[in-house]
Amino acid sequence: MTPERETPNRERTPSGTRERVPSGATATGRPRTRLDQPRSPRRRLLPEWDPEAFGRLSERIARFLGTGRFIVWMTVVIIAWVLWNIFAPVDLRFDNYPFIFLTLMLSLQASYAAPLILLAQNRQDDRDRVNLEQDRKQNERSIADTEYLTREIAALRIGLGEVATRDWIRSELQDLMKELEARQHDGHVVFPAERPHGRDVDDH
């Protein structure tokens, strides 16, 4: 018996069996990714948020900013702020004239309110666009159904025009009766039962 040739990519184990050693591109030792398992989530440096939840929050804020309640409360806060920093004791004042801190707070509130209002408007525009698309499709279906019913009604009218109606049959019977009465007045009327049969008819 000839000895088995040892292949370069096989090694002997203590049990005597040969185990295939990866070679080439598979010999790098990198773990293979399983296709039947989902990938592990990657860590991100930036914070993650739910766009839908953030959009709903922005709509609530924008809806509140557009109400009279917000204007009333904002006016009350500004008046109280100004009065406190004018008539309160000097040690308790936190924003003396010309109220720089108040101006900063109002600017900060406006800088946040504008993007939130724009975001809410964009979401409303997206909803309006979807509603318009649905309305357009519904109108197209309604027009198609109306055209189909119109064609069916026209076909029924044409079909009814070719059908013998009761009035038409009655008028035909009246005309036939008038014709029979006219023949009776002119002379003897031969009915189908009185007609001769056989060879006399052929000779005639």
Structural overview:
The chain has five helices and two strands. It has helices at residues 51-65, 68-87, 100-162, 166-186, 199-203, and strands spanning 10-12, 18-20. Helix 1 crosses helix 3. It is mainly α. Helix content is 61%, strand content 3%. It is elongated and about 140 Å long.
Give the ordered list of helices and strands: EEHHHHH
Please state the overall shape, judged from the principal axes of the Cα atoms.
Answer: elongated
Quaternary: single chain
Radius of gyration: 50 Å
Helix content: 55-70%
Strand content bin: under 5%
Q: Count of helices? A: 5
> How would you write the strand order of the largest sheet?
1-2
Outline the low-pLDDT stretches.
1-13, 190-195, 199-204
The tally of beta strands, per DSSP, is: 2
Mean pLDDT metric: 76
- End-to-end separation in angstroms reads 122 Å
The biggest beta sheet, please? 2 strands, antiparallel
Structural class call reads mainly alpha
Short description:
With 204 residues, the protein is an all-alpha fold. It contains five helices and two strands, in the order E-E-H-H-H-H-H. The protein has a two-stranded antiparallel sheet with strand order 1-2.
